[in-house]
Amino acid sequence: MTDYCSNSFDQFKTTPEYLSLHTFLHSHDNIIRMVTASELGRPAVEAIQSRLAEKFPNEIEIDNFKRWTGRVVREVMVSQGYVNKPNPKKLLTNPNNKFKTGGYYQK
Q: CB atoms < 10 A from the CB of 3, how many?
C-alpha cells in the first residue's frame, strides 16, 4: 500500500492506488453522479462518497487520500466543462460521511 504520509500528489500519481482511484472516478456512472450533484448545487464528492468508502475502505480514512480524491474529482469535473467555485461547501450531515467539505462546480 502507498505511503500516504507523503504530501506529494505527483508521487501518488505513480502508484497502483492512483490508477484505481482515477479509473473509479472517471467511470461513466460516477461522472453522472458528480455532475448531477453539481447541477443541484452540492459538492461533487457528496454523490460518490459512499461508493468511495466501499471501494477504498482503508484508504478513505487517510486525510491525504481524501485530499487527492478531491484533486482527481476536480480533474473529472473540469474535463466535463465545469469550473471549481471558491469556498468548499459542507456536505449534508450523515454519520457515515468521510468528507466534511467538498468543492462544488458550475458550468
A: 10
Exposed / middle / buried, residue 93 (Cβ in 10 Å: 0-12, 13-18, 19+): exposed
Burial class of 49 by CB neighbour count within 10 A (0 to 12, 13 to 18, 19+):
buried
Q: What 3 state SS string does 50-106 have?
A: HHHHHHCCCHHHCHHHHHHHHHHHHHHHHHCCCEEEEEEEECCCCCCCCCCEEEEEE
Q: Which of 45, 71, 75, 60 is nearest to 4 (CA)?
A: 60
**Full-prediction pTM beyond 0.90?**
no
pLDDT in tens, 29-65: 999 999 999 999 999 999 999 999 999 999 888 888 8
Q: How many Cα neighbours within 13 Å face the side chain of 86?
A: 0
